[in-house]
# Entry
Amino acid sequence: MKKFTLLTLCALFCLSVMNAQGEFKIGIAAGLPIGDAGDFSVFSLAVDLGYLFEITESIQVGPISGYSHSFGDDGATLPGTILEDGNPDVSFIPIGAGGRFVVAPNFNIGADLGYAIGLNDGNDGGFYYAPRLSYSASEDVDIVAAFRGVAIDGGSWDIITLGVEFGIGGK
# Structure
């Protein structure tokens, strides 16, 4: 059922991208797990996908998705949590909406909000939130710093990331 739901959401996302006028965004980021996540993981990678519509010259909004994977410390386990089975790698697929607001030339702030689907055993996912700050290095390339969090049972899975985002089409 989880695979069917994921496939359906991905298909809807792709159809909305094909029929709308906006800018497709794709990004990759490396991160450091902090808090609870930092106790069990040592490094994270994330891929972001989005399609942002320009509402005004300063505001963009649209659907987002992606994938994040935290690489764990091999000996880390915690009974009663997503790390119970001795597999400390933790993966999520966030699905939601994103917004960006230009605060100064070449700088914008934003946030992604939605639900993160947990991919590993015992990982039910949770509410996804990702405030972000970006600098436009060129018309199609942004440098992005973000705090990514997933509210899970018994705590949160938090990561601080730095990455690059490419704009394709639009503008």
Notes: Helices lie at 2-19, 35-38. Residues 29 and 57 are 26 Å apart (CA to CA). The chain has a mean pLDDT of 85.
